[in-house]
Amino acid sequence: MRPKLWRNLSAEEKKPYEEKYQAEREAYLQIVAKEKRESEVMKLLEEEQKQKTATELLEQYLQFKQEADQQTKNKKKTKKQKDPLKPKRPISAFFVFSKDLREALSAENKNMLEANDPIVAKKQMEEYLLEIELYMTKQDNEAATRQLEEEQHLKIQKQGALQLLRKKKKEKAKNISK
Q1: Coiled coil: which residue ranges (predicted)?
Q2: Quick one: 139 exposed, middle or buried, by C-beta within 10 A (0-12, 13-18, 19+)?
Q3: How far apart are CA 105 and CA 116, in angstroms?
Q4: Do the Cβ atoms of 97 and 17 come closer than 8 Å?
Q5: Which of 18, 73, 74, 116 has the greatest number of C-beta atoms within 10 Å?
Q6: Is the pTM of this model over 0.85?
Q7: Sequence spans of domains, the chain
Q8: Percent of the chain predicted with pLDDT > 90
Q9: Residues 6+ apart with CB under 8 A from 165
Q10: Beta carbons of 60 and 125 less than 8 angstroms apart
């Protein structure tokens, strides 16, 4: 019934629903673009840190790193799971139209539940905004902890390489003195 009504609407009648859809779509695209930019910045930062450490290390450290890379490549990569906290896409113009049509039908039929109560919609919007805010802070915190862990791991690798270098220098000095 609703799809037939939707198809029979003129472009002017569909326009308010299309505008609502476009507004929600733009908000969604802004959120997704922000997340994409943040992930790209994190990737660039990680690459820059890797390049700095690679130039600072000596030949022995590079060998050590190659061995570690081979071990990580041998492990199976796990499939990336969907993030349940990611915000949902906005509803299409047809579903906005359906909501308005449901209001008209509920006025005729008193037995239907009032699902489109403006107070309920406002509460749902507030809950959604809180969820988005919590999601973004959680993502920021996770990125910060990941970065700290990587920095600590790099420090440990540097220390191990330097110790190995010192041992080899001592061995060379002993071999030369003999």
Answers
A1: none
A2: middle
A3: 12
A4: yes
A5: 18
A6: no
A7: 1-54+90-115, 117-178
A8: 28
A9: 58, 60, 61
A10: no
